Amino acid sequence: MYQQVAWIVSIVLIALLAIAFFYVVKHSGREGNGAAVAAATGRWRGRLLWGVTLLSIPVVAYTLTELPYARSAIANLGTVEVQAKGYQWYWEISQTKLPVGKPIEFQVTSADVNHGFAIYGPDMKIVTQTQAMPGVVNVLRHTFEQPGTYKILCLEYCGVAHHSMMTELHVVAQ
Amino acid sequence: MNMQNEMPAVGAVKVYAAISGVVILLMMLFGLVMRMTQGQILPIEPNVFYQLMTAHGIGMVAIAGLGGSAVMWHFLGKYVNLRAGFAWANLAFFLTGVVLVLGGIFLGGFAAAWTFLYPLPANGMGMWGKHAAAAYMGGVLLVGVGMLLFYLESARAIIRKYGSFAKALGWHFLKSGQDAPPATVIASTVVTIINIIAILIGAVILTMMLINLYVPEIAIHPLLAKNLIFLFGHVFINSTIYMAVIAVYEILPKYTGRPWNVYKPFVWAWSATCLMVLTVYPHHLLMDYAQPLWMHIMGQIVSYTSSLPVLALTLTATLGSIYRSNIKWDLTSALLVLSIFGWSAGVIPAVIDGTIAVNQVMHNTLWVPGHFHLYLLLGCVTMILAFTNWIANKEQAAGFSGLEKAMLWVFAISAFAYALMFLLSGQASVPRRWAVHLPEWLAYSQVASLFAAGVVISAMAIIVRAMGGIIRPARQA
Ligand code: HEM
Ligand SMILES: [Cu+2]
User: Which pTM does this prediction carry?
Assistant: First the structure.
């Protein structure tokens, strides 16, 4: 979902920017009143700064309300705990058959270098991810809504066979 | 101190510009080969792909640094007394470093990506050895030392002329409204401050990793290492744009007849940037869940605020300075205006990706090269090309031939479309840094390769033409 939002928002804003450039370049020829243009530039500067600020505050505030970081303080009864460890160049996952609709806690780490633990949905879009770092356990909580075959892809470059570090998770209805 | 007479800085700047042009072209070719490999148009082995990826990454970052410093040196030198010896010393370190880096990569097989993320350089798994990693990291360290000399010299010269950094940043002007320093001096001072800090941090982590290569018992905490590497990397690459944009501040007024005025918000914006650019890097670690929560939140908030001020002011001032100005269009002025579009456009997907919720599904996908190719290729490198062209034309406006217009449009459209293909791929969850793509992703890489070829051809035409202008007078002398 966020992929689409990010893409559409980016394209729309970049298009607006392009329109502004085309407009100004098109009207760059005939010399106008310098003082008037300077005053207008000042107004646009204000509009842009205020506009972006007023737009950003609610966006930042809203998006900060749902952070992915699991806090250990939250007790999760009925959580399925899964250990995932990255190696050059394969994954070792304690359990790959997982229930749908139940909170899963992935405890992700690495045996050697940094890897990226990304869960891809059956449509091959990223569902969620965290880093797999040696000496560190990153706790990733996720509840699968749909049964199906999910893939784990390595999303942190880890050497020559990085792109073949793939495995599967099977999410099944109970 | 008449070094300037013996070795005119103009000479160094020309050499910088010429080297930048050649290296940019070569690295673009590497980029084209990579994208074609991902599209399975070329049969390149993964180990070679990752070597090219490492070379392209470090090569482009370093050359953006060199090209940017050529711009800064050239224009800052008009206000303060820079000693040309330092420009040559920087170049000597740069070239020695480059030899080591290239040796490490193409002779030693080193391919841990330009970001040398700890502890990958020490874990080549037979693909490269300790010495190759040491050559690479030692080379990067040398490039850094050269740059450090360069900034220490600019710091010295700025303080000698203006008395203090505070004055060169224009803080007195905020109070009194008098004696604003030129935009070039403000930008150069900010870059000098942040890059001295960043390079020192880079030097610390590189030295630690070099020691660790040979004495593995002296281990580094991987999360600390990652923080240091990205603090260094982020500030360094950001600074390349902040140096290169000086070309817009200095050259565009020659075409529009409207001076680039310094007013209070401009001073505020640059000083704020000085702080924010140093605290924004945690947005590279948003998927490191073990990182303290406050750093994640700071990473997101500062991502939204840090690029905004300077960019918004530069963007509106650029548009305002060309609107009804009777601007004279030639390749230089067109590239300058294009570069501000590329920079602004790139910041949009960058900020969006700095949102934690988005980063969770976009981190390390091709979305990331998507945004930075917009503001490095269509922003920073476009500024450097404009500058190269400007000095090739002996710092004068020139004619705008039909061929040049065509090349400019091919460049603009293909670079833009090329970057959009990265964004589109990222939106489809295609990972970055994958030598071999899954069948369903091939079409993206194939279409992108077409645009990449357009960039290479048009950039080659622009660079070769400028090279002619730069080298010719030197030969006569
Ligand atoms: C013709 C122009 C260019 C082409 C075809 C090109 C192509 C590429 C490709 C295919 C990648 C690897 C993407 C992946 O992760 O799979 C890449 C990465 C990169 N490019 Fe470019 N590029 C071009 C211009 C530039 C410019 C002008 C810069 C900077 C000044 C630049 C800087 C980088 C950097 C820093 C990386 C990251 C390397 C890494 O992930 O380790 N590129 N480029
Ligand atoms: Cu990997």
Answer: 0.95
Examine the predicted complex and report whether its ipTM is higher than 0.90. Answer: yes
Distance of CA B301 to the CA centre of its chain: 23
Q: Which CATH architecture has domain A76-172?
A: Sandwich (2.60)
With CB atoms and an 8 Å threshold, state whether B436 touches A25: no
Model confidence band, residue B376 (pLDDT cutoffs 50, 70, 90): very high
Distance CA B283, CA B280 (A): 6
User: Cβ separation of B290 and A138 shorter than 8 Å?
Assistant: yes
Indicate yes or no: CB of A44 within 8 angstroms of CB of B316.
yes
Superfamily of domain B3-470: Cytochrome c oxidase-like, subunit I domain (1.20.210.10)
| B49 vs B34: CA distance, rounded Å | 6
User: What distance, in Å, lies between the first and last C-alpha atoms of chain B?
Assistant: 24
Say whether the peptide bond before residue A89 is cis (omega within 30 degrees of 0).
Answer: yes
pLDDT tens per residue, range B204-238: 999 999 999 999 999 999 999 999 999 999 999 99
Q: Nearest residue on chain B to A60, judged by CA atoms?
A: B301
Q: Which of B172, B349, B128 is nearest to A12 (CA)?
A: B349
Interface test with B, best of A31, A153, A155, A165 (most B CBs within 10 A): A155
Q: Does A84 touch chain B (CB under 8 A)?
A: no
**Domain limits of chain B?**
3-470
